Amino acid sequence: MAFGIIGGTGLYEIGEAGWEPITVTTPFGAVTAYAGTISGREAVFLPRHGREHSLLPHQVNYRANLVALQMLHCDRVIAFNAVGALRASLPVGSLCLAAQFLDFTCGRPRSLFEPPDYPPRHVDMTEPYCEELRAHLAAAAEALGMGPTQEVVYVCTEGPRFETAAEIRMFGLLGGDVVGMTGVPEVVFAREAGLCYASICVVTNPAAGVEPEHRLSAQEVTALIDAKRRDLIRLLEEAVVRIPPERSCRCPSS
Ligand code: HPA
Hints:
Blueprint: E1 2-7, E2 20-26, E3 29-38, E4 41-47, H1 62-71, E5 74-85, E6 95-104, H2 131-143, E7 150-157, H3 165-173, E8 178-180, H4 183-192, E9 196-206, H5 218-242
Parallel strand pairs: 1-4, 1-5, 5-9, 6-7, 7-8
Antiparallel strand pairs: 2-3, 3-4, 5-8, 6-9
The site of hypoxanthine has 14 residues, from strand 5, strand 8 and strand 9.
């Protein structure tokens, strides 16, 4: 088994040399990922937006990505997601872990379970993220002095535009904590594929209207991730050594 690592905005490679490109053909299309090791454990890195950030959130082939990771024997997936914070208690630069999501995407594929490759099925989504993986990530962050990591409700919008201030107020009333454009349907396809999935959310900005004078830009998102890159990789390295080889969660049988 290997770890699948999905890099978000600003995270197009991890580590230095030694990651071998590997192309997989899935029923949903071909995917190029990079095989290597993290803390001595096998890993596959997949830059969600492509190495040159050529894919906007609604253009990402989430189904092919998750099936490719499954075909490469990644039974655990750790994803990075840049997010805007709906609450002042989540400052820019802080890390949090997604525990639930609210799906406001539209027009994206909904399921892997499409004939002829997959028979139709419904999966349980009560706990969409792997609790075991999340606990190890939280412990690793704590050990590195990057914690405590709050568990958050992730609101996923369709993008690629940022939200209006009114939308953000509504998401806050509905129980959302952070907002991003890529967490869904990625987490859904991980569950459908029987993979464990955790999302490390990196707060890159206050969400629209949270600070009334603030205006959002893609540049502030990438600048914050650039500043955090070393920390994010250290967190991965620390988490991976803590995770036992065998899974004892419910994800494989969902
Ligand atoms: N909204 C949506 N997606 C994002 C944001 C945001 O404020 N910040 C980073 N990704």
